[in-house]
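Weekly modeling sync, notes
Attendees: S.R. (lead), two postdocs, one rotation student

Agenda item 3: backlog of single-chain predictions. S.R. asked that every request posted to the team notebook include the full sequence so nobody has to chase files. The rotation student volunteered to paste the first one in as an example of the format we agreed on. Action items at the bottom.

Example entry:
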Amino acid sequence: MAFEGEPFAEGEIDVNDLAPALLALGDVIQAANRALNGGRVHARLKLRATNEGSFEALLSIDVSMVDAIRDILDAVAESPDRVVAADQLLDLLIKGGTILGVSLTSLFGAVKLLRGRRPDKVEDRGDGMTSITVNQTTIIVDKRTVDLLENLPTREALEDFGSKALGVPGVTSLKIGEKGSEDELVLTANDRSAFKVPEPVDEEPQIDVMEREVWLKIVTSHFRDGYKWRFTDGGDKPFTADMEDAEFLNQALEGKIALSANDTLRCQIREEQKLTSAGLTKEVKVVKVIEHIPGAKQFRLL
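Predicted structure, as returned to the notebook:
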């Protein structure tokens, strides 16, 4: 892996610029290893300085327990495909490799081609190969590369790497792979967006709705459309909620109710949770204000 650009003109770079990119690359390797090998083996990235302005990435798999070694040997005896060794992992990520004489595109190469989009067509070719077509361009990848493209932690690690490695000020290009070989992949700042995780496909979310009565203390209140209120229910952190009690809002706007940040409201709230492949979200709405208790202006001395 080699960086090129103004920061390397003198053969050195601020460690604060380079270190995040290298750590992010290590995260990509660890995420990919977990996706393919589970918890049976551990992968880590080692770096060895070569010429000025470049680093050679050395990937090794460390196994720390005898039981783990025995598990790996048993797995290999049962099915060699169950454990992806260091050299294979490096091929999948960076070099691409070959199967039956067919040159394969690496994970980084596939990500660059897809540019954050979903492919138009994915077809299993057999013999461990899969074809991916996007914008009338077809590449052949190892079927395990497809597994990595569909693995969210790996894609998130790739996005983080792209942001940090191609966002180093003054760096014009990043070369990954053996220098001067056909496998060498050149990335520029224009490829930064290619590493973004694709938007989730349209799906029917799982929704859970619950209504309950609670005491809420006002943190901030807003009377303009689209602005959420901030409350605390006595927990560690405040939260936002939509105020949907039109009658209460009108009374506050007309001055019939004077609100302050110390006030407490007895409310009927509706909590709506949505679960999708992108994660879990929650929205809170105040359906009705049942009781308004003004905040204390004085305290009892005795």
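Discussion: group reviewed the output briefly. Residues 53-82 have pLDDT under 50 and may be disordered.
Action items: rotation student to repeat for the remaining queue; S.R. to check formatting next week.
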